[in-house]
Write a structure and sequence with these properties.
48 residues
């Protein structure tokens, strides 16, 4: 949900208004997780 909203062009501030239980730290954590998962996916595939 967070990544999809960012991909659609919503700003973090707009996402926070739409989902008041989220925090900016939560958005950053989602981005960090996605970056890590993507990096692992490409590293693992290259090693195979």
């Amino acid at each position: 949900m967070i990544l999809a909203n960012l991909a659609e062009g919503l700003s973090p501030e707009a996402i926070l208004r739409e989902y008041p239980t989220l925090t900016l730290e939560g958005i950053r954590a989602a981005l960090s997780y996605a970056a890590d998962a993507t990096q692992r996916h490409f590293v693992d595939r290259g090693a195979a």
